[in-house]
Amino acid sequence: MTMTKWWIEGGIFVTMTPQEPVVKGHLVVENDRIVYIGAEHPGKLAEGASRISGSGLVFMPGLINTHGHAAMSLLRGYADDMVLQDWLQTKIWPMEGNFTDQDVYWGSALSALEMLKSGTTAFVDMYDHMNEVAKVVEQSGMRAVLTRGVIGLCPEDVQRAKLEEAVRFVQEWNGKADGRIMTMMSPHAPYTCPPAYIEQIVQAAHDLDVPLHTHMSETAAEVEQNVRDYGSRPVEHLDKLGLFSRPSLVAHAVHLNDDEIALLAERGVAVSHNAASNLKLASGIARVPELLKAGVTVSLGTDGAASNNNLDIFDEIRLAALIHKGVTGDPTAVPALEALRLGTVYGARAIWQQDQIGMLQVGMKADMIALDLDQPQFYPRTDIVSHLVYAASGRDVRHVWVNGVQVLKDRKAVLLDEEKIMAEAQRCYERLTNKV
Ligand SMILES: N[C@@H](CCSC[C@H]1O[C@@H](n2cnc3c(=O)[nH]cnc32)[C@H](O)[C@@H]1O)C(=O)O
Ligand SMILES: [Zn+2]
């Protein structure tokens, strides 16, 4: 393998490390890893490196989106302003029922493009036709944790077939694309999977030695129904079924009581906070300050583009910093640096990759983004972290690298064909809407 080496000369680096959150200086990457970051000239380490000027740019770790359904970008704007159960049952599921491999491929490619262009370098995806999503990840150069989510509201033979498909997906893709693809197992939610089915999925995760992912406690109605059907709230229910006996990541976790927060902390369960989706579907607002105080890893997710309706993690960072202040009446809730950690360091923790990504530090993978600082919203130069949280958006992202490879250059995707993806996604949508 030929060695690649590049050197960012003279930039501002928001490293997200506890020791030195902001560094003005230099960064050197060799192959897929950061080999130098610091104020001093890198000296010998920069020998033979190609030089990139860091002037006018701010660099930070790539953002991590810990919950979504990439192909749902095909349904962006298709069914807005509805309540979750009605939205899923009358609009989304009937459309998804007609999705082909091609639809999932182009829908996921559209999302990959949008994510890259707004600074997301790693994402979690729970969906169907997952081979297509994996191909998109492979081609786009992104990093992802993928899982064939299963809904168990079907006869046992269909349940079994879905579970086998999910297992095969893990066997085929875990660790692929130079390690950029990792996998999980996922019951879609406690209200769509009977308890015995959840136990089978948990067992499969044990056998395969992969983590678990699910939607949990998204709406008050879900919690009530869980109590009616199973005699306990979703957290206790899933705990009894063994879901938290493995590394697990739960999306939403909006309706939690104090005991449930304590249990999630005790079991080391990570939460994906999907603020925009929860607001849009009027599901509620997660108790993020309390979760953080209890020591739960809280990360950020967009959920599908049909309930957001974009995939910009900068939006989620800003929302996380704002709504919890509004809800608690405490302006110190989720301060700027903590909000930025939700989208970076904690995101990495939530997908068990904190030793690899989420910070700019020697030895870490070079998953990094650069934003254009020479824009009015970033003047005057007061506090760069504050600017990234309260003033920035994904549209400010100019360059993106994943695993040491530049995948976005001057706002253009390097490995994806932007025009073709948008045209094909449009065609998929038109074909799908003619079917129903
Ligand atoms: N179609 C598969 C399940 C795929 S898992 C991903 C599912 O999550 C659904 N989904 C998207 N957003 C949400 C949400 O916020 N809550 C619950 N389900 C969601 C989405 O519509 C999709 O069907 C099967 O039948 O087994
Ligand atoms: Zn979801």
Automatic annotation (TrEMBL):
Coiled-coil region list: none
Annotated InterPro entries: Amidohydro-rel, Deaminase_MtaD/DadD, Metal-dep_hydrolase_composite, Metal_Hydrolase, MTA/SAH_deaminase
Cofactor: Zn(2+)
Annotated binding of substrate, by residue: 96, 148, 160, 188, 218, 303
Catalytic reaction list: S-adenosyl-L-homocysteine + H2O + H(+) = S-inosyl-L-homocysteine + NH4(+); S-methyl-5'-thioadenosine + H2O + H(+) = S-methyl-5'-thioinosine + NH4(+)
Residues binding Zn(2+), per UniProt: 67, 69, 215, 303
Top-level division of the source organism's lineage: Bacteria
Protein's UniProt name: 5-methylthioadenosine/S-adenosylhomocysteine deaminase
Sorted UniProt keywords: Hydrolase, Metal-binding, Zinc
PANTHER family from the UniProt entry: AMIDOHYDROLASE-RELATED DOMAIN-CONTAINING PROTEIN (PTHR43794:SF11), AMINOHYDROLASE SSNA-RELATED (PTHR43794)
Job description of the protein: Catalyzes the deamination of 5-methylthioadenosine and S-adenosyl-L-homocysteine into 5-methylthioinosine and S-inosyl-L-homocysteine, respectively. Is also able to deaminate adenosine.
Similarity remark: Belongs to the metallo-dependent hydrolases superfamily. MTA/SAH deaminase family.
Gene3D superfamilies to which the protein is assigned, alphabetical: Metal-dependent hydrolases, Urease, subunit C, domain 1
GO molecular function: 5'-methylthioadenosine deaminase activity; metal ion binding; S-adenosylhomocysteine deaminase activity
Co-factor binding comment: Binds 1 zinc ion per subunit.
E.C. numbers: 3.5.4.28, 3.5.4.31
Residue span, Amidohydrolase-related domain: 60-407
Enzyme class, UniProt record, top EC level: hydrolase
A Pfam family recorded for this sequence: Amidohydro_1
